[in-house]
Amino acid sequence: MNELRDLATSRRGFLGLAAGGLATAALTAPAPAQTVRSSARIVILGAGAGGAAIANRLAARIEGARITIVDGRQQHWYQPGFTLIASGLRPASYSASSTGEWLPRSIEWIAEYAAEIDPEAQRVTTTGGTRLDYDYLIVATGLTLDWDAIEGFSLDMVGQDGIGAHYASPEAAAATWREMDRYTDRGGVAHIGRPATEMKCAGAPLKYAFLTDDRARSKGTRGDCQIIYAAHAGSLFGVPIVNEKVRMLFDDRGIDVRYSHVLRALDAERKIATYDTPGGPVELGYDFINVIPPQRAPQVVRDSGLSWADRWTDQGWIEVDMHTLRHARYPNVFGIGDINGVPKGKTAASVKWHLPVVEDHLVSELAGREGTRRFDGYTSCPLITRVGRAMLIEFDYNDNLVPSFPGVIAPLEELWISWLMKEVALKATYNAMLRGRA
Ligand SMILES: Cc1cc2nc3c(=O)[nH]c(=O)nc-3n(C[C@H](O)[C@H](O)[C@H](O)COP(=O)(O)OP(=O)(O)OC[C@H]3O[C@@H](n4cnc5c(N)ncnc54)[C@H](O)[C@@H]3O)c2cc1C
């Protein structure tokens, strides 16, 4: 615990704050930021990691504003926990809480989804028909998992016949564990892979391949298991130095990599997965498969005119400045989280560093000043390599490794302390972030 407390005093990083979440009593709270008075109407779309956290931060900074948050989901999901659930390390309940418990009382929550966003008229219409005129809009809808893009697959297949889909929900993650558990008892062929689109936590499929390997080893069945990792391109990870490390570890663990293989279809009856490859479709048999589908902006965002017109056109991420997270064409619109069309950063750890930037630019404008904070692309991924070991990978827009604890935690080493960050401390940090305190 002392070790964690020392780490908590570090200045940087989501995971530095993870330690802080466990040791808050030992830390001095930062001086509260100055408040401003404003009667602005602020609408936040999405009450997930980014939306709930910015709602708490703005409610604490702005007096007199009318802040409305729109999200029809009653349950809040702590998604970094899904990988632990899908590996049998936590129950499904670990990642589920109620949305309402994270939202400040002083704001209004409309428990419906945004059905239309009109940035010209500065208006959002909800699925229930409520019209919300705004002065500022914060888009924090996260992303949509495009399950329909995988032919022959539907979510009701998860938990049967060797099919998993640990991105879908806490329950789907638990069902994925039941299938992985069965598979590692019996052996056979496992498929784990990633989509060709941008995705949240690009490290999660890699972690899952490591954990499947580890589970089979601890059961003594690894010799009966062929674990295939289907990489969407010619590398395993976008940051070259991390890619090389993972490649070496996969080699060491005997994980069979198929490059440029993108899952297109499942034939559940024959237990065959079809992959698109540069040489045409390839069919591979499986006994266990973890389906992770293409990921896109929600349709309502894609229809709004907020997306990039010339980048990610099949995905629809919103056109924000990569440093200020302010919309390029609608300056009263900001983006937080996975929805942002920026080169890196679809992780909760990145959300942590989006928050002060959006808060600064919005609150400064209300106070008649210009904001100065910038987002540098910070992305973090505690890459689990076996139960009890992880590598704490943190990087920025330039693919520089930006370790939170230089000289203390080596980013490319498999360490117990990095595992502890993911397995124990990350959730406490995440919760502190939601409350606007980290
Ligand atoms: C398996 C898995 C493992 C992960 N592991 C990690 C990890 O180890 N570390 C890490 O930092 N990150 C990890 N992540 C990523 C992290 O969870 C996301 O990056 C983070 O939650 C993004 O926050 P967000 O607010 O953008 O989206 P979310 O938290 O997904 O919230 C989006 C919210 O918007 C709502 N919404 C959607 N459409 C609408 C609409 N039309 N109107 C209103 N509301 C809407 C949704 O209901 C949801 O509540 C992982 C994710 C997964 C799936």
Beta-strand share of residues = 15-25%
Give the second-level CATH assignment, the architecture of the largest domain.
Answer: 3-Layer(bba) Sandwich
Largest sheet: 5 strands, parallel
* Structural domain count: 2
Q: Strands, helices and their partners?
A:
Layout: H1 2-8, H2 14-22, E1 36-37, E2 41-45, H3 49-61, E3 62-63, E4 66-70, E5 75-77, H4 82-85, E6 96-98, E7 108-110, E8 114-118, E9 123-126, E10 131-133, E11 136-139, E12 144-145, E13 163-164, H5 170-186, E14 188-193, H6 204-219, E15 225-230, H7 240-253, E16 256-258, E17 262-267, E18 272-276, E19 282-285, E20 288-290, E21 295-296, H8 299-302, E22 333-335, H9 348-366, E23 379-386, E24 389-395, H10 416-434
Parallel strand pairs: 1-3, 2-4, 2-11, 4-7, 11-22, 13-20, 14-15, 14-20, 15-16
Antiparallel strand pairs: 5-6, 8-9, 9-10, 12-21, 17-18, 18-19, 23-24
Give your account of this protein's structure.
The protein has 438 residues and is an alpha/beta fold. It has two domains: 33-143 and 297-377, FAD/NAD(P)-binding domain (3-Layer(bba) Sandwich); 148-294, FAD/NAD(P)-binding domain (3-Layer(bba) Sandwich). 28% of the residues lie in helices and 22% in strands. The protein is built from ten helices and 24 strands. The strands form eight sheets. Strands 7-4-2-11-22 form a five-stranded parallel beta sheet, with helices on one face. A five-stranded parallel beta sheet has the order 13-20-14-15-16, with helices on one face. Helix 1 (2-8) crosses helix 2 and helix 3 (49-61) runs parallel beside helix 9. The two termini are 20 Å apart. Residues 1-12 and 19-29 have low confidence and may be disordered. It binds flavin-adenine dinucleotide. The site of flavin-adenine dinucleotide has 36 residues, from helix 3, helix 4, helix 9 and strand 23.
